[in-house]
Amino acid sequence: MIDRLRPGRSTADDIVVEVVGAESIGPDHLNSPGTHMLGKALSVAKSPTTTPNYQDGRLIGLHVDNWDKLSHARKHTGRRRLCINLGPGTRYILLGDVDIQNVCRTVREDHAACYPHTDDLRSYVARGFPLHCLRIRLDPGEGYIAPTEFLPHDGSTEDQQESTAAFWLGRWACGAMGSLV
């Protein structure tokens, strides 16, 4: 099963999801050119999703990030996000199985000229297209590197105690921080 989850030789690093341990992350990984710390976020206990809408406080659920403000044609080239679970609770990363470029091609006639957004994902689901999620457990000291501009995602503390996570954006080669999977 694990071999089926490994990226192929031609898979670009920009679209690979990796599960990593904090002990394998060194200062060079966090201070390399183009790497940017986004900050820390405390997630309350037992929350199905964790990302708030900062305007009204509601949780937004599965979404795509837009830090790099990329067009449809370039969305797959965005920086990946590193997240480390600082604890005390376990948390999860939820990942959608359809990337935002495919979502936009499905729901927008003008997809070539668009800047993909979470609203495109909402339209995709509202129209009845399938979106399955993978839930990956992250104990304290574990984390992920994921293309959050490209894949629908969110955090979760469902059935867990509160958890704090730290986030960075950057370009890391696959395997640069080891892998727990």
Automatic annotation (TrEMBL):
This is Uncharacterized protein.
